[in-house]
Each structure stands twice: as C-alpha cells, then as structure tokens.
Amino acid sequence: MKNLLIFIPISFSKKKSGYIFGKIVQDVNKDVIKLYVIYVRDSRCRHSCKSNLNLVGYYFSSESTATYSEKQSSEWIDIYLSKNISTNNYEYDIKNIIINGEKVLLTFHHIFIITYDKLALEETELFSSRSSKQNHFYELRNILQNHQVKEEIQRKSGFNSIKNTLITYHAFLCFYPVVFLTKAMNKLMPLLRYSSLGLHIIHWLENMKWMLMTIMQNKRLTLKTGNYISTTIFDMLLGIFVLKFLLNNIMDIAPSIALLNNAEHVVEALKSLIDWLMGAPAGLKLNYMFNTILGKFFLYNIHLWWTFLLFIQPVMDFAFNVLFLFGNLGITFQISIAADLLSLISFHSYCIYVYAARLFSVQLRGLTALFRLFVGKKKNPLRQRIDTCEYQPDQLFIGTLLFTILLFLMPTTWVYYTVFTLFRLILVGFSGFLTRLKFYLQVIPFYATLKWLLGSNSVKSIIDLRLGSCQPKKPITLFTSMTVSSWAETWNRSIPDTISIPPQMKWKKIINDMIWGQLF
Where are the domains of the chain? Predict the structure, then answer.
C-alpha cells in the first residue's frame, strides 16, 4: 500500500472555502505521494490572481454547504473540515483524490494529515542545519522560503516593510565604500600581514562587506547579520569607554614616554638575567669563555634595540595619534594594537630566542651525526635512511674531538636556550589569549540571545510530532510544532561566515619543536 502525506498549515481551520495552492511531489521509489498545501484563495480570485504554485484542489470549511468542486487540473484533492461534537475539535477529511488524471482509491492508501506551523518554517534559520535533504519538512521549508513564493504568501505589516526597505537602502549606500577600502587594504597586504592591527583592519572590512551583501540579498536582518551588528556596536562603545578611561586616569604622560618606560624595565630585567646567566646560574659550572661570548653578544643585541627605540621616539608620538583613531573603532582594535606593542617591546627577546634556538639545533644535530660515527653509521640524505659506513682512524679521531667539544659546550647553550624558550612560550600563550579574546568579543550573541529568550521563530529548529485523531477508515492526523533550539547551537549558528574559530594550540608539535630546537 502507498502512503499519502498531506501537509496542512495549522491556521487552515480558520480559513474560508476556496481553491488550494501548493505542490504535489511523488516519490516512486518509496511509494509516497506528498501534497504540500501552502494557502487557500477565494473562488473569485482563482482566475484573476497569478500564482507560482500549482492549483491542487479545493477546501471546504466547516461553514461551507457545498459538496462538489469543479476539477481544474490532472492533480486534484478535496479537503473537508468538520467539527467533532464529542471532542469539540476540528477534523479533516479527504475525498476525490486525482493523481496524474487517475482517481486514487483511498482504501489502498495510508493517508496521513500532518499540520505544520507555516510562519515558523518560513522564518526559521536553524532548521536546515539539523535536517537532511530527504526530510519532508526540509522540502516543505524550501518551498516556503522560495523567494517568489514567499512574496505571495508572506504577510508583512507596513512597519516591517518600511524597516526592511530602510535597512536595505543603507546597506546599499555603505557597500561600495567598504568594497573600495577592502581592495585598497588588500593591495597593502604584503606590509600589513606583519601587523596584528593591519590584519584586523582587513578582516573587519571583509566582515562588513559580507554583512552588507547578506542584507542586500535577503532584504532583511538575518540571525547572523543582526548579531554581528549588535556585537559591532558593543565593540565600539566598549572601546570608546576603555580609551577614555585610559586617557583620563592612567596616561598622565605621553604614550611614547610610557612605552619607553615600560620597555626600559624590560631591558633592565633582561640585562640582569643575562648577567646572572654569565655567572654561575643555579650553581651550574658553564664554559667561561663561551658563556662570556654569548652573554656579551645578547647584551649587544639588547643595546641595539634600546637605541632604536630611543631613535624613533619622535615618530612614536605621531604613530600613537594614528593608533588612537583606530582605537575608537572598538575594543578589538585596541587588543590588536596591544598585540603589536607587545611584539615591539619583546622583539629583542625574540631575536635572542632565535639565535639560541639555531645554535642549540646546530649543536644537537652535530652531536647526533657524530654519535653515529662511533657505531659505524651515517645518514643517507638521498634515500632518507641510516646506512652502515667504515671510517678511517683519522676520521674517527677528528669526529671524537668534535664530539667532545660540542658535548662540553652544550650545557652553556642549553641554559640560554631553555630560559629564552620559556619567554617565547609565555609570549606565544599570551598572544593566543589575545587572539581568542578578540574572537569572542566579535561573536558575543546579543541579538541571538534576545531572539532565543523571546522564543522567536528564527531560532526554532526542532520539530515535535504529536498523534491526533486515529479512527478507522479515516486519515491519521499528526500535529507538529517547532521548538526553540539550544542556546549553544543558537550561538554557534549566529557566528558570521567570515569569522573563523581560532585553531587550538598544537602542544605536541610545540614540545617536539622545543626538544629539537625548531622555531615555533
């Protein structure tokens, strides 16, 4: 036996008699005939009104006295509404079903009448993420949200129409300036990619471009665009508040002088640390000459960097004035500026880390290669394997001498490498914290949470089925309702398409790089 599924809007019982418009879909493989009823129109509008849907039948309300309707197409169905006196509920009855010009015998079909919330399916934005294309409600939702059909069946108030028109108009006015700025900034990408602020400006413009395009395409605020607008407003207000607080209560001196004072503290701390390492740190007996050479070399790098900061102090005042302008755009811009300032202050420590890591890596690889000499092995770089090799006595003597020298110099290198690798690890962790903080400030679900608390149709995604009437020789009625999705899923689905979640730190790779002296 075949199954006949008839989807009827919940509000159908309040409609007057008229012609039914919708879609009939036949699934031959599963022996299923689906009738999606969308709306009903008065008999007088049948010829005067144009529709992109098919005329599929006639609806007789409980107040109707007619018992016959003229068939207008090869696919036809008559739906009757009657009131059950015992239960005081409305019940649907199906008669005169014609598919492909042939009358369907109801005794050879299982008939299911499924009521659905048309408005909820029209407005939901989360339902598609939970449904597959084989879902009947997914197919019905696509019919309802089709642009041409939606213009016919959606009833909008004058206020909503004016609001959406104004939103689309303003989005159109802002779109082309944003596109121009985005193209200009992309041309500067080779320079801006080294700056956290520069990358954030480019991403911010890309987000604005995506938001404006989405509004113009949908001609309304969606869950993602509405949430991004509310988050951007909060970002700007919080940024202005923090900037005014810093200028009025903390920065009593010029920003460049404050930066140099903090940089001076960092420089003095590093000098003291290196002086301590040049002695006997923690009682370790290091190679005196090699330790002195490394210490003086690193102190010289710190001195060069401090001289450079003093030299560019006049430029800093102008740079800070420019940075304050960007700081007014939001707290996320200020976080990007803070990340750049942190990189500027700690650049000399990063250079020391690079020197120590390279030296440690060279010595470690040298010791590994020379160790193979004692067991008669050598690495074959062409085949990427270890081969057996016979060495001459002079080769063994020179290899033993070099191995001894590198082995006794390794503790000194290891001390410097360990200390500055820990500094590098702290800076990388703090930089990752700033990146995640900036991400969460960009996706705070203000708009989505408000919709979720109010139980808006746009955040509904779960369909509940409830069995209605089930009488012999009558269709089985199923009542459906849509419930609000979870808050976590609502938040995840409201993140803009252009904002990606920061990747997790690969601790396994970082630890492996630390062991072998690779940069991270």
Answer: 2-153, 158-251, 253-311+346-444+500-516
